[in-house]
Specification:
Length: about 675
């Protein structure tokens, strides 16, 4: 090795060092290399690299003389040209330097593409082209050029230029690796910032070292502010205990997944799923954990809402089932009670047979009361207001409330003799009381007392906060001796779907409050932990008589011929047998169309007795069809449904009355007399 080789070797080592420092930027690598080439080989140098389209990009050129630098840049530039020239194809094929020393005119033309390097000023008198190979692919070339006349390159110069091109190849490879790394990091950053999941990096002690933007949104804080904060600060007590366990699992190299509640900066909470995986220790890191946080609040709320809606659908289906069964059961009770009454009328009063028949009639009356309560409770849709005597309401509901409470809870009902009636939808009002009884039952799992009291009140303006209700009202107080409520529970008690019991739909008090508001009333609540709960219901009082009373007609109507239309043959036969002793002329039809056809063909009934709910045509529709031929025809409607449950299906006028099943002979004759104002023929 010559003495001159040592300085060149040191220069190459220095170049490698500088390229290592500049390896993150390809342009800096090229600038560093061509300056080193000028210093080490002289006197000008340039780098032409292939662009992404496979053609050469603008050549990077250096020369100590700015004027010659511009001329070299212009003369040697092959921008936009593909590597199909003789020099390029040779370097691609051989991967060896091309030495042009001296440069002939033909070589100069080939070197510059379509321009001559000897025109207009200093040209290239000698050149060495060294291929640049990056990742085993031709990437362009390094050119060193002498612009002085008679300039030459020695074999040592060529070898040095080749070594410089090798350093350029390494530097460009490193720069490309850095660029790919930066691109990958940018893609990774974009993914972390755009995915819906929150991402946290935690150190072994649970301190946040990185947070992406979605987790900042979840917590209500800008994500840069989360770094350096402990994750336990965003968790409730249970979550903090779980976090300690998960960090221990992570330090042991195990991943964990579980649910938690995040406490946001404003104090609200979000349900989340936390997936925590350990991160390996790195030279500049002590390890830690990576947390993927998925907000499941909407999904959990949707599942809860779906479960509650399913519960409501089941309740609605149950109500329809109760209504249908009660209706059919009332038809059976009608036959039982009517038949028993007829038996009682044919035997000696006081005889065992008479006593048995009387017991059957009384039992049927009890069954009637129960089924009417079930009908009113189960079929609330379409209810209409009626005048409801509060004492009657509470007495009739006593059995239903007792069954709701169970045998371990005592029911006490009290009301004054002067308790005023209210105008309300009976079914929803009964539902409200049953809801309160069910809530009280759940609050007294080990037994207790439920007290229901009714009293008259006179409210002045502002006496009842939050409601404009004034004047005479009926106050219903439902008090239990249960566990009571905390302040937080009491404040949220009337919110739909709020519940402290996992098996409850959270609709009892909310529904009751809605019922009160729909009737023009109000509801308030007082409760203390371990002191029980009292729910106060306020309804406007009325002075009217119950709607069940029907005034006698202004003009009496003589009734001789009676048309009975009932789709249940056993009920139709019973009504016929109940009326026969009274001397009426009776026609029975179990088909509405047959009845209409008979009247159209000349039949002239004085009274229509018809069921309300029948196939093909309802009772009111039948009455309307018959009144087209018999104007003013009186109608006695029979139904296993109550008037409140029937709602808009039936509209009574001065010539109609509703007789609720089951009924007795005396009840049937009394309805006819009240409607027509006349007694039976005999």
């Amino acid at each position: 090795m010559t003495a001159m080789a040592h300085p060149r070797r040191y220069a190459l080592a220095d170049l490698a060092l500088r390229l290592g420092q500049a390896s993150a930027d390809a342009r800096t690598v090229r600038e560093t290399v061509i300056r080193a080439a000028v210093d080490m080989v002289g006197d000008g140098a340039g780098v032409a690299l292939l662009d992404n389209d496979g053609c050469y990009d603008a050549m990077t050129v250096h020369h100590p003389d700015p004027a010659r630098r511009r001329l070299l840049a212009d003369a040697l530039d092959r921008r936009g040209m593909p590597p199909r020239d003789a020099h390029s194809t040779t370097m691609i094929a051989t991967r060896q330097p091309i030495v042009l020393s001296p440069v002939t005119p033909e070589q100069a033309t080939e070197l510059a593409g379509t321009r001559s390097v000897h025109e207009d000023g200093p040209g290239v008198h000698a050149a060495v082209l060294c291929p640049v190979v990056v990742d085993d692919a031709y990437a362009g070339y390094l050119i060193v050029a002498r612009t002085e006349p008679n300039g030459r390159y020695s074999a040592g110069d060529v070898e040095l230029a080749r070594d410089i091109a090798g350093e350029l190849s390494l530097g460009l490879s490193s720069a490309q690796s850095h660029e790919r790394l930066r691109a990958a990091e940018e893609r990774y950053r974009r993914v972390l910032e755009t995915i819906p999941e929150g991402v946290l990096q935690l150190d072994p002690d649970g301190m946040v070292t990185y947070a992406n933007e979605p987790v900042g949104v979840m917590l209500g804080l800008p994500s840069p502010q989360l770094a350096g904060l402990p994750m336990r600060g965003f968790l409730d007590d249970r979550g903090q205990a779980e976090l300690a366990k998960r960090l221990a699992e992570s330090r042991a190299g195990r991943a964990t997944v579980g649910a938690a509640q995040l406490i946001r900066a404003d104090g609200s909470r979000r349900r989340v799923r936390v997936s925590m995986v350990p991160q390996p220790e790195e030279p500049d890191s002590t390890g830690g954990s990576l947390c993927i946080i998925t907000d499941t609040t909407d999904q959990v709320d949707a599942r809860i809402l779906k479960r509650q809606l399913d519960h409501l659908r089941r309740l609605d289906s149950l109500g329809q089932l109760i209504g249908g069964i009660s209706h059919d059961f009332n038809n059976l009770l009608t036959v039982v009670a009517g038949s028993a009454e007829m038996i009682a009328s044919t035997v000696e009063p006081g005889s065992p047979e008479h006593q048995l028949a009387s017991d059957i009639v009384r039992a049927s009356a009890t069954g009637r009361s129960l089924t009417h309560q079930l009908l009113a409770f189960g079929r609330t849709a379409g209810n209409r207001p009626e005048v409801v005597p509060v004492p009657d309401l509470l007495n009739e509901m006593q059995a239903l409330l007792s069954r709701t409470l169970g045998e371990h809870i005592t029911l006490e009902i009290s009301f004054g003799p002067d308790s005023r009636p209210v105008r309300a939808e009976r079914g929803p009002l009964e539902q409200a009381l049953v809801n309160l009884a069910a809530n009280a039952r759940d609050a007294m799992p080990h037994g207790g007392v439920l007290r229901v009291t009714a009293s008259n009140l006179e409210l002045g303006a502002g006496d009842l906060a939050g409601t404009p209700l004034t004047g005479p009202v009926v106050h219903l107080a439902v008090s239990d001796t249960g566990v009571g409520m905390s302040d937080e529970t009491r404040r949220r008690a009337f919110k739909p779907f709020f519940t402290t019991r996992p098996t409850s739909a959270g609709l009892g008090l909310a529904t009751t409050a809605g019922i009160m508001r729909s009737m023009g009333g109000a509801i308030t609540l007082e409760s203390e932990p371990r002191m029980g709960t009292t729910v106060h219901l306020y309804l406007p009082a009325v002075d009217e008589t119950p709607d069940r009373e029907t005034a006698a007609p202004a003009v009496a109507t003589a009734v001789q011929d009676v048309l009975i239309v009932e789709d249940q043959p056993d009920v139709a036969r019973l009504v016929e047998r109940l009326l026969q002793p009274a001397g009426y002329s009776i026609t029975v039809s179990t088909d509405t169309r047959t009845a209409v056809e008979a009247v159209r063909n000349g039949a002239k009934p004085d009274l229509l007795i018809t069921d309300v709910v029948m196939p093909n045509m309802t009772g009111p529709e039948l009455a309307e069809a018959l009144r087209a031929h018999r104007p003013g025809l009186p109608v006695v409607y029979m139904s296993g449904y109550t008037a409140a449950a029937l709602g808009p299906q039936i509209q009574l006028d001065a010539n109609s009355v509703l007789l609720e099943k089951p009924f007795t002979r005396s009840g049937l004759l009394d309805a006819i007399q009240r409607l027509t104002g006349t007694l039976p023929p005999r």
